[in-house]
Amino acid sequence: MNDAETTESHAPVDYEIRVRGHLSDTLLVAFPDLQVRPQGGETVLIGGLADQSALYGVLARIEALGIDLLEVRRKSA
């Protein structure tokens, strides 16, 4: 593996995670590293995640809090 591949594999990947409804300030505390954008009757969480494990952690928090997940989209670089 060359240096470019090593650097690239550790770069955060930007994701857009869409959930149903508007999240309260109490729920937003669970996602401190993500930007929040209300859109219509939904909330979009946007941000860079270090790896798939970090993504699964966010998705697990969404599930644990009873939030309805609508979409997960990896943003292209």
Summarize the structure.
This protein is of the alpha+beta class and 77 residues long. The chain has helices spanning 3-9, 25-28, 52-64; strands at 13-20, 35-39, 42-49, 69-74.
Describe this structure in words.
There is one protein chain. The chain is of the alpha+beta class and 77 residues long. It has a single domain (12-74), classed as Alpha-Beta Plaits. The chain has helices at residues 3-9, 25-28, 52-64, and strands at residues 13-20, 35-39, 42-49, 69-74. Strands 2-3-1-4 form a four-stranded antiparallel beta sheet, with helices on one face. The radius of gyration is 14 Å and the shape is globular. The model has no long low-confidence stretch (mean pLDDT 90).
